[in-house]
Amino acid sequence: MDGKILNRIQIPTKTPEVTIPKIIEFFQKESINNNLKAIGIGTFGPADVDPSLKTFGMIRSTPKQGWKDFDFISSIKKHFNIPIGFDTDVNSSALGENNWGAAKGIDTFVYITVGTGIGVGAVVEKNLLHGLTHPEMGHIFIPQNKEDDFEGVCPYHKNCLEGLASGPSMSKRWKLKEALDLAQNHIGWEFESDYLSLAIANYILCLSPKIIILGGGVMNQNFLLPIIHKKVKKLLNGYINNDMILKNIDKFIVKPALGNDSGIFGALALALEAEKKKN
Q1: For residue 144, what is the DSSP state?
Q2: Is 225 domain-assigned?
Q3: Residue 241, Cβ neighbours under 10 Å: how many?
Q4: CA-based radius of gyration for the chain
Q5: Alpha carbon of residue 232 to chain centroid
Q6: Which helix (H) or strand (E) holds 195?
Q7: Can you give the residue range of the structural domain that contains 75?
Q8: In the chain, how many domains are there?
Q9: Domain shared by 250 and 269, yes or no
Q10: Is position 134 within any domain?
Q11: Residue range 112-167, pLDDT digits in tens
Q12: Residues 63 and 87 in one domain
């Protein structure tokens, strides 16, 4: 499978009543033009991704209007008699990079997206990390910079990682329309690199990934990644005695090779896996 994208559409995420019919319409048209054999869904969360649960395929405690406890997978299934793969959007992006991108052939790695929220997907020994729920590593608690008195924007935890380092947190903290409007020398980027570096150091210590992929809109600042390289290395202080961190950290913490298409390719991987299980 070469992973070629035949067609695409971008639909704004509004309420399910508005958004879902547009998704269905797109795939119904594509099923006429192409031989549609399976569908892959990579969704914002939290979501129930365990197929053994009665609530599999449901969006859970999201702040997005109308989506809390919405049965996403059933809303699609009733229109298509084909296999459907389902997981979180960040796990989907991780799968995309694992099959066609920066983590191709790597059995243990972490994918982080920093944008409207912070999501983290982990592949451990060739398997997506699942458990009681999808791991919510974007909501870990980290020490706050002493010069930063911002309360955070997470509706559940206030100043967790997402509450302090997501795009909306930066916009609200600095009263800007977009986080990317901050000048390169603004102290906001010092805070941002601090928080992301602390999180990455913790992920390294807990999961021992062979590569970390760092994507999302906030990471579109080219100067940010080299700062994170230095700070992660300083935080670990030689404790992880491996050349990937000591000498080649620029090859250890990298940008997505697929850019903004990681999630699309990951949804393809979910669809392929769903079709494989059917057969």
Answers
A1: P
A2: yes
A3: 8
A4: 19
A5: 20
A6: helix 187-207
A7: 16-91+260-278
A8: 2
A9: no
A10: yes
A11: 999 999 999 999 999 999 988 889 999 999 999 999 999 999 999 999 999 999 99
A12: yes
| Cβ 93 vs Cβ 64: under 8 Å | no
pTM: 0.93
- Is 229 exposed, middle or buried (CB count within 10 Å of its CB: 0-12, 13-18, 19+)? buried
Measured at the CA of 130, the angle between CA 199 and CA 197, to 5 degrees, comes to 10
Instruction: Residue count of the chain, please give it.
Output: 279
Q: Are residues 109 and 236 in the same domain?
A: yes
Per-residue model confidence as pLDDT tens digits over 133-143: 889 999 999 99
The structure tokens 């903004």 sit at 260
DSSP H stretches of helix in the chain = 16-33, 72-77, 89-100, 161-165, 167-174, 187-207, 224-236, 243-246, 249-252, 262-278
For residue 120, report the phi and psi dihedrals to the nearest 5 degrees: -135, 125
Q: Give the angle 220-224-227 at the CA atoms, nearest 5°.
A: 160
CATH number at residue 190: 3.30.420.40
Task: Report residue 249 as tokens.
Answer: 């950290």
Do the beta carbons of residue 53 and residue 227 sit within 8 Å?
no
